[in-house]
Design goal:
The complex is a heterodimer of chains A (about 150) and B (about 650). With about 150 residues, chain A is of the alpha+beta class. Chain A contains 3 helices and 7 strands, in the order H-E-H-E-E-E-E-E-E-H. The chains are: A alpha+beta (about 150), B alpha+beta (about 650).
Chain lengths: ~150, ~650
């Protein structure tokens, strides 16, 4: 085995692995990229049913209702202009409250209801997810340092 | 006064670090021993100074000195002492001081223990350490100074985020930083070697223990973080592919590749330029991790700083460090002479495969973590990349790696006999088949992939034990001969066996978590839930008072048949200061499975939301990580790191023949 042969093997092996990895990454990327929408976007952009997306905004005051099974909850996510009804079954993060920022992952159903597969945990209630801040800003409902909206520290 | 002394010590440390970064380098170029030796003194002095600053900051927290802004924002008189101390690194400024403290600790350790290094190499290594230290001290003093005063002082502080008030998390950052920052030594050695244009077996022998120590600490640090997420977040997940977790996984993957490739440099004097590149990449990924976590570009509990200046500053540091070292690499790497030749099927070949797969895995994690940030930065849509992406890219890379882990150590250096190695692995193969068949039978209709995971774990464990049995000639030589060989075997060999066994245990834990069961429902006092052969009876809720919180404490009895196994007390804690509620889960473990319990909100009519999970083999994830780190430490205690590397011939005859 000469030095050149060895280098050739190494390069071929490396390129082969790289090709496989790129293929994996590209195919996984195209299927599993999750886009973020504000409630207004979701209404405006005609997001297809069943497509996994994230929405973010505030949990509308007075919108939270618990179903009798103790696991299912309905609420509305709003950016001040539009709101989206959400249904979620499962454990809620500790900081889930009315009036607080929230990010929800899931898909739209035919009737316009948003079926959530995950409500994302935010660890600190002073903290507002930047996506939500952005969504509220675009809806013109964000005031810098406003107490109701919390504001990033 | 003490605070001002701390501040002053930090400024002085910067001045000394700047000297450490420049003078020894100049001395090494001009062959002036005095200049070079300055590096050692400077390294130790800057360590002492940063330690003083760190101690001053801890003192401010312990005495609740609310004239210091940093203390006001992150501490409170009611907080237990442990969390007053750990609160020092529970915020941006303090954690950066800890970062630099550990950096200078490593620098001082190189100066102290590096007596057998050639003076030029030592001077250059310390100079590079000094450069990194200067960069981060500048960062602290200009953008994140923890010693700023607030006059008049408020009566009390704002407290620490309650989810951080936890013993598991208290020591997670120091271990993580020991890992992150420990890789800086490998980086400094790599840059120093590039300046000198020389990488040889002795170089690898000096670098390896530092890398190994950092890797052990990072393994423990990541495991602690994952364990914390598991038992505090209240639904028992242990890995979320969250960008913050990925930030620590990337340097771990690259570091794992590095400890394997540096074996090749040490034993066979080849793969040199790749190993140098890997050392640079590993520390660069640590810096990227620091940037991701500390700059506030990510939404997480770790994102303390949203001051854009800080993110820009760290980004600039990364550009200088990565750009500078890679430029140096591009200029100097071609001068590094390749060493021994080897066939594709050989120990070297197997280690190359290991490196290829691990670095590709690190690259996929890098892409998945940074792509959303990149898209956002160029004004694209907001996206996120979740676990499906990582499951589909990361897992397919890990499977061949796990298959190869068992085979590689049985191949000879230079030219291996693949067929012979596979024949010797018959027992491991049989174990994997048996596990797969039993698994399929027991779980019939269960997740096939998880059963495959168990088989892989058995294969890896079988491979590690086979390799050990081969070395001691178990069942082939007499028992006394085998025992003699087992005693003579170097600790590094045992380290590898133990680390690979730990990997097998962790893989079994990952696979086992696919079989978890859950019951999420409302319960009233007296209700019983049955799951996985256990009965859980809810007896009621009691209000209890903690140091700085009040809690609703559930009272549950866990039984199996007539026998009571445990009384569990999950809590919902309310921290009035932050107006925040956290879950305190209760876990009963028998080390083969966890019974995991959390309580949620009351419905106001006497019922409580209860979440109960049965999680088979999940504890093995962390047990496996601890075993892996123990293997690393065992390898670290090998006597060959302590004997003078300048006379390696003297150590050789003592090592076992299989070495």
């Amino acid at each position: 085995m000469t030095r050149k042969r060895r280098r050739l093997y190494l390069v071929l092996g490396g390129l082969g692995t790289l090709a496989v990895v790129s293929g994996l990454v590209l195919s996984a990327m195209s299927d599993n990229l999750v886009f973020f929408y504000s409630p207004s976007d979701l209404r405006a952009k005609d997001v297809p049913e069943g497509r996994l997306v994230r929405i973010g905004g505030l949990v509308e005051n007075g919108s939270v209702t618990h179903a009798d099974d103790g696991r299912t909850i309905d609420f509305r996510v709003t950016d001040g202009k539009e709101d989206v009804p959400v249904t979620y079954t499962g454990p809620l993060p500790d900081l889930f409250r009315e009036g607080q920022g929230v990010v929800v992952e899931g898909a739209l159903e035919r009737d316009g209801n948003f079926q959530a597969s995950e409500v994302l945990a935010k660890h600190d209630e002073k903290y507002m997810p930047p996506e939500v801040v952005d969504a509220l800003k675009r809806a013109g409902r964000w005031q810098e340092g406003a107490k109701t909206a919390g504001g990033p520290q | 006064m003490i605070v001002e002394l701390g501040h002053f010590a930090l400024v002085l440390a910067l001045v000394i670090s700047l000297a450490q970064a420049s003078l020894p380098l100049w001395g090494a170029a001009k062959h002036q021993l005095g200049m070079m030796e300055l590096g050692r003194g400077a390294a130790i002095a800057s360590f002492v100074l940063v330690a003083l600053a760190f101690a001053a900051l801890i003192n401010a927290y312990v005495t609740s000195d609310f004239s210091v802004v940093n203390v006001v924002q992150n501490s409170h008189t009611d907080k237990p002492l442990l969390y007053k101390i750990t609160g020092v690194w529970g915020n941006h400024e303090g954690s950066m001081v800890l970062w630099v403290f550990i950096l200078t600790l490593f620098g001082a350790a190189v100066a102290w223990f590096g007596g057998n290094l050639p003076p030029e190499l030592r001077a250059r290594v310390l100079a590079v350490q000094g450069m990194i230290g200067s960069g981060f001290l500048l960062f602290i003093l200009f953008t994140s100074n923890p010693f700023l005063r607030e006059i008049p002082a408020p009566a009390n502080g704002q407290g620490l985020n309650p989810v951080l008030q936890d013993p598991g998390l208290a020591f997670h950052p120091p271990f993580l930083y020991l890992g992150y920052v420990g890789f800086s030594v490998a980086f400094s050695f790599a840059v120093a070697a590039l300046i000198e244009g020389r990488v040889d077996a002795a170089w690898a022998r000096w670098v390896r223990p530092w890398t190994l120590a950092a890797w052990c600490a990072l393994t423990i640090g990541i495991a602690m973080g994952s364990w914390w997420a598991y038992y505090t977040l209240g639904w028992g997940g242990w890995w979320f592919w969250d960008p913050v977790e990925n930030a620590s996984l990337m340097p771990w993957l690259a570091g794992t590749a590095l400890i394997h490739s540096s074996i090749v440099v040490e034993k066979r004097d080849t793969l040199k330029s790749w190993t140098v590149l890997l050392a640079i990449i590993t520390f660069s990924l640590s810096l990227v991790g620091t940037f991701l976590v500390r700059s506030g570009v990510l939404t997480s509990v770790h994102a303390f700083a949203v001051d854009p200046l800080r993110g820009t500053f760290i980004l600039l540091l990364i550009l200088v460090a990565v750009g500078g070292s890679l430029t140096l690499y591009a200029v100097r790497a071609p001068t590094l002479k390749g060493g021994g030749l080897f066939a594709p099927v050989s120990r070297e070949g197997a280690l190359v495969l290991n490196n290829l797969l691990l670095s590709c895995a690190a690259a996929t994690v890098f892409l998945g973590t940074l792509y959303p940030l990149f898209l956002d930065a160029v004004g694209g849509p907001k996206v996120s990349v979740g676990y499906p992406f990582f499951n589909r890219t990361f897992a397919p890379l890990m499977v061949p790696l796990l298959v190869a882990v068992a085979v590689g150590p049985l191949l000879a250096w230079k030219r291996g006999d693949l067929l012979g190695a596979l024949q010797r692995l018959w027992a491991a193969f049989a174990a994997a088949i048996v596990v797969a068949l039993v698994g399929l039978y027991v779980t019939h209709g269960g997740p096939v992939l998880a059963v495959f995971g168990f088989a892989l774990a058995a294969w890896v464990a079988g491979g590690a034990l086979t390799e050990w049995a081969e070395r001691v000639r178990l069942f082939r030589a007499g028992p006394s001969e085998s025992a003699r060989r087992a005693i003579r075997l170097p600790r590094a060999a045992y380290g590898m066996t133990v680390a690979h066994l730990g990997l097998a245990v962790a893989v079994a834990g990952f696979a086992g978590s696919a079989f978890e069961q859950e019951r999420i429902q409302e319960m009233r006092p007296g209700d019983v839930v049955s799951m996985a052969g256990y009965n859980l009876q809810f007896r009621g809720v009691e209000e209890v008072q903690g140091a700085n919180f009040s809690a609703d404490q559930g009272d549950f009895v866990l039984s199996r048949g007539p026998e009571t196994i445990a009384v569990l007390h999950p809590e919902r804690r309310f921290f009035p200061l932050q107006q925040q509620t956290t879950a305190k889960t209760a876990i009963h473990t028998n080390f083969f499975a966890d019974y995991y319990l959390a309580i949620g909100d009351p419905d106001g009519k006497g019922a409580w939301a209860v979440r109960a999970y049965w999680k088979p083999l999940v504890p093995w994830i962390w047990i496996g990580a601890v075993i892996m780190a123990a293997g690393g430490m065992m390898s670290l205690s090998d006597r060959r790191w302590r004997v003078g590397a300048a006379q390696p011939a003297r150590a050789r005859p003592l090592a076992a023949p299989a070495e």
